[in-house]
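Morning, I've got a small favour to ask if you have a moment. It would help a lot if you went through both lines with me. I owe you a coffee for this, so here goes:
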Amino acid sequence: MQIHNEVKKFNHEELKDITNNFIRTIGRGGFGIVYHGYLENQIEVAVKVCSLESTQANKQFLAEVRSLSLVHHKNLVKLVGYCKDGANLAVVYEYLPRGSLFDHLRGKDSSSSLNWRIRLNIVLEAAQALDYLHTGCGMVHRDVKSSNILLGQNFEAKVSDLGLARMFSADVNSIITLSGTPGYIDPEYHLTFTLNEKSDVYSFGVILMEVVTGVRPILIAKENIHIVKLVKQKLAQGSMEDVVDSRFDGEYDTHSVWKFVELAVRCTRDEAADRPTMADVVVHLKDCLQIEERRQKGKPEPNEKSDTNTISISTPQNSTVSFAPDSR
């Protein structure tokens, strides 16, 4: 297993010391349990322990260690070390005290809901990490979701969980085993098992819709309706206010939200070829953030007209409804 020299190898006894005998659980997943710990220099870390009975987890462990040891970006969770001590497998990485974006949108930390500017900054930083993986590393994440976007003390975002990440070459359209999380899986990938970086773009588009609406990707109370379908239905009815998270209490720039929703719709188009690249996503999110920051500073938005001010939604009858925000 190729591991970067700067990554430390721990044994199982050292992990017991770091975690105080695995006393504090901070997360659970298909891989196993994540524990809080301290290194000797009192730096906080998260220790993800591989479930011994899971063969798939073993494979994901090896993949995550390889991936994290070879990629370096300020918005990717940093690998501190790993343990491969007999049957004991674990990944040690930096600790992000604010938990996940999922937690703050409607999970355990939903009481501290994030304002529009903070949400914009979070998804922008996550998009920059994914763009780095796609363009700088030739890598597809394959499990992009809001619970894999972790937040630091000042709500800086870092993308985590590269256990399913896969390198792609010039032939990105390779057939592999379907993977990902229900609600975030690219429908084209689901049908064809054809993987490319646009599968991550679709998943990220679902996150964008979560961020603007505050609801889960699959709404059980709505007869398991998917968030993409719900948002497009509301937009086709001309109901932008029903799309936006009510917890914003009107504190946002309408044009910033409009451009954001338009981007989310583009990212979640059925055909991969019709979706933007993550590099394009980064550019548009920067625009959205700049507009909102101007509002907060009391500066008027320049009177510019753009094609992105109109969203086209295809209806089930194959007709197209286009509409734009009201002028202010």
Summary: The longest helix spans residues 116-137. Residues 8-94 form a domain with the Phosphorylase Kinase; domain 1 fold (CATH 3.30.200.20). Residues 169-175 have pLDDT under 50 and may be disordered. The CA atoms of residues 184 and 203 lie 5 Å apart.
